[in-house]
Design goal:
This protein has a single domain, classed as Heme Oxygenase, Chain A (Up-down Bundle), CATH 1.20.910. 76% of the residues lie in helices and 0% in strands. The relative contact order is 0.20.
Length: 234
């Protein structure tokens, strides 16, 4: 029987290592200007929609006990997060309006090719890999955002800091970043019981770690594509 503590430690190590990769370091070093913030928030909206698609495929293939947890998770995302009184996509739209981007502009624009390719890759895992691997891929992105796991803060918290420092935006007025910095702590904790119930064997843990690795590689490609594009924007 494999060790659950070892599995947790390795997933946490993988999530922390994201912030030492060239792609993440490049993204987090980009100084935000209004045009760059507008670009980023549009892509945050595309990312949010992709997450909903991926979690939907996870929910469809997962066993009943996992469906219940994923359904609860998606209530925050799709219906209403009690912390904010809105669904998470609406929070992104509201934050976009702070930098002059309307809902219509978001809906009419398209992601850059590198971002689109990464989204297709995440969808491929969600639709075509066994349910435990698909679940792992989706939950790893929240583990990488969990400030109780990531030394120095998760990605949303770090991006929020750039909004504050570079744009002078109060964190209380950046609703999407503020909520996700908290919500993903709860979501990652809530989902851990899935591994406890379904990933106790060596074979299952190897599958979990394989999917986690693939997800983190896609995440690097996605963040690197955003960073490169933002650096070309004045």
């Amino acid at each position: 029987m494999a060790s659950m503590n070892s599995l947790r430690d390795e997933l946490n190590r993988m999530a922390n290592l994201q912030f030492e990769t060239p792609e993440f370091e490049r993204l987090l070093s980009v100084r935000l200007t209004l045009p760059r913030a507008r670009f980023y928030i549009k892509h945050n909206a595309y990312y949010n929609k992709n997450r909903r698609d991926c979690w939907g495929f996870v929910l469809g293939a997962a066993p009943l006990d996992v469906k219940k947890l994923v359904w609860k998770h998606e209530e925050d995302e799709l219906i209403t997060d009690k912390r904010a009184g809105e669904d998470h996509y609406s929070l992104v739209v509201r934050q976009a309006q702070m930098v002059g981007v309307t809902r219509e502009e978001i809906e009419q624009s398209e992601p850059i090719p590198g971002a689109r390719a990464a989204q297709y890759a995440w969808l491929h895992i969600a639709r075509n890999r066994p349910w435990l691997e698909a679940f792992t891929s989706s939950t790893m992105l929240e583990r990488r955002n969990n400030g109780e796991i990531i030394k120095g803060g998760g990605l949303s918290a770090r991006i929020a800091k750039r909004w504050v420092e570079d744009l002078g935006v109060a964190i209380e007025k950046a609703p999407s970043l503020k909520v996700h910095a908290v919500a993903d702590v709860e979501h990652a904790d809530m989902m851990w019981e899935v591994f406890e119930n379904h990933a106790a064997s060596d074979e299952a843990q190897r599958a979990v770690l394989s999917a986690a690795h693939d997800c983190m590689e896609i995440d690097r490609a996605y963040r690197g594509a955003l960073a490169d594009a933002m650096l070309r924007i004045d």
